[in-house]
């Protein structure tokens, strides 16, 4: 069903009926929240950033765990309302205070406004946690898809902040983390798997950072990576670090493309760790909090998660990894939409996240 919506949106955009991004926003806004009298829900602003806070009404004299949630949508769609069910679910199941962050969207608010809003909201919450009944030492940040990218980038931005409490953990749900190699095994194996087709992943990413779509072919070939960068990144981004069992489904090593100076200069943004957190320096990675990473077998982004897991573990960071063998990109998002759309893999992923949160 999600794939169908994407294709409809693309078609209507091409024929000039409604822009793809606006249609996707409208469709996500139509997801009805389920009524829940057990929760206290309020809309606030953390500095300039809209947030919605969820907490159980039951009186609790002890300070609770805090969760900041950054929704997916490639920085261009998605909203607090679209993620209402998921945030309510986490609040109920873990007795946490959940803050859903309504960051500004592109193209109206160009990248990196999305990251800046998530960082602003996180810093504000870390500073004012007790005002919301939250233990500042038990704050977890969490996001799915591009929200997972934002989560990783915010966690990295905070590692050297001595004036703030440390994050307790980060939860990355099938995150996008790099644009160095789009021929990793997962990109090859799942290039035609809905909802995140290989080509669509790159097009959405380039639109998000307002880059020329004319260089997509060169990026797929790897012509945008200079020799210097290739040498630097090959110790972090390489099929060599993907476990063998993930290569058995028809993976073939890709020939290396000679870099083009023109494309290397055009693609400069793609190597910014805010956009591609897998490319952060070792000194940053080594200070990250405990991490939960969820990957799906049928997802082009699977190997981004696997590579980040390896980098974190190489630096002694504790990682809890959940791999959904039958999962696809978006499976956790649709898990709470009832039997029609809910898939077993998504329900399993949600349960694993809840189990992790309860330990925090």
TrEMBL record:
One of its GO terms (molecular function) is carboxylic ester hydrolase activity. The keyword Transmembrane does not apply. This is Alpha/beta hydrolase fold-3 domain-containing protein. The lineage of its organism: Eukaryota, Metazoa, Chordata, Craniata, Vertebrata. It comes from the Eukaryota. Belongs to the 'GDXG' lipolytic enzyme family. Pfam families: Abhydrolase_3. It comes from Geospiza parvula (Small tree-finch). GO terms for cellular component: membrane. The keyword Hydrolase applies.
